[in-house]
Amino acid sequence: MSLINESVSWKSLEVHSKSIKQQHLRDLLSDQKRNDTLNASHSGIYLDFSRENVTTETIDLLLKLAEDSDFDRKRAAFIGGQHINSTENRAVLHVALRAPRDKVLLVDGVNVIPAVHEVLDKIENFASRVRDGVWRGSTGKPIDTIVSVGIGGSFLGPEFVYEALRTDATASVAAKGRTLRFLANVDPVDVSRALTGLNAETTLVVIVSKTFTTAETMLNARTLKKWLLDQIPNVEASSVLRQHLVAVSSAVSKAVDFGIGAENVFGFWDWVGGRYSVSSAVGVVPLALHYGFDVVRKFLDGLHDIDTHFFESTPRNNIPLLIGLLGVWNASFLGHSSRAILPYSQALTRFAAHIQQVDMESNGKRVSITGETLPYETGEIIFGEAGTNGQHSFYQLLHQGRVVPAEFIGFSKSPAPIALPGEAVSNHDELMSNFFAQPDALAYGKTKDELVAEGVSEQLLPHKEFPGNRPSLSLLFDELTPFTLGQLLAIYEHRVAVQGFIWGINSFDQWGVELGKVLGLRVRNQFISSRNGGDVSGFNSSTSALIKRYLASS
What we know:
10% strand, six-stranded mixed β-sheet
């Protein structure tokens, strides 16, 4: 199987990139006809990519690259339920999790939509019973606190959505008087932070583990199980566990053995990857318990809206496709190894962390889907912070250090507006002034001639010069709601698939996380041996010295 870098379109882009590298963004942005072309819109979303190092010819060539990569066939295989995760022989169909009841999506010849909605109906019923006080704790008190125990995709996605909806008008009212916390890290400090101030009698623990074997999650689950039993000592243990523990898992028997009622296990399927699981029971259970199912339903509807857009819209107005192609362009042809996600919304404080996993675990690969070592690099290092906090953190590097393509995300309306008497602008206008200014500052920079005209001393000229020509794109939404939050997430989920399809890799496995786990088990066994008087052995001298030092002082 030939790799995409052997195609005519790839080689054309390599030649074209040499020309683009000679053009500065301040010159490209002087072409209004170009600027008017480099945008796309859909359902209240506006994408402006005129500040990328591209021309209309670049976009033509990138769309031809998609064609040569067999993108249309790969996308059809995705929605068709084919086993595109070939190394694990699985379909990849997280889009089914937010599809309407009348949709038909097949995996191995079976329409999975009825099963999806069976689980969603079960969650809606359970969440309503808990929130209405029908389901109570083992001492008869209503449940007002949820602790969701899970790691990786079982944590990052749900936490991101939880944080994003805290200030939404509808969601915040629905969550009044309720608490949702997450426990992911096996570090006992995280346990302490999750449990401090909680009343076990009013707490429901949600254990999220597909196999019910994930080491960190199950140790934390056993820790919380003990906490519940210790904190509620005067009630029969089986009753405490039945009323205060539920699970999101496909391993029903293991959950039952743990003390959870079979009817309180919410399932999902092997065609749901962990980092794409927030729209499954993994995210829906804790979020519906906290915000109510109606709010979560709107989030799922937003995801589905972009799913439809991605699979059905024309290439030149297909937002996930365009953003994905720009990612390939920046990484593979302009040589940028990182990307900054910059949401000008404090509500999206955990968005970059979630997309780090979605993107880097998906596309951080070294071989093609058929196993050939790639002659080009894939994936980017993803980082980010909510504006304007990031401006006072790492924007120095963005402006005068390394070139890092940036993605600005903004909203025309604030979910929590403030306009102080006597202030010239509202707080949100102050925030958004930066949203519009920073992309231009990165693109244009500031020349020595401009600095001289301002009277800057000769000595400071090199320090105050901004080279500019730093690419970015801007996504502008009307407002942040559960629906638009779903839209935003789906855009980023699908752009990952686009880049993987172009590069010819499997974006849906994650073998790279396995080796550390295996070696970690060896160290764990050494701890057991050493705590019982055994010598440290089987490691290189450096690791042995570190382990001995740890054991001596712990």
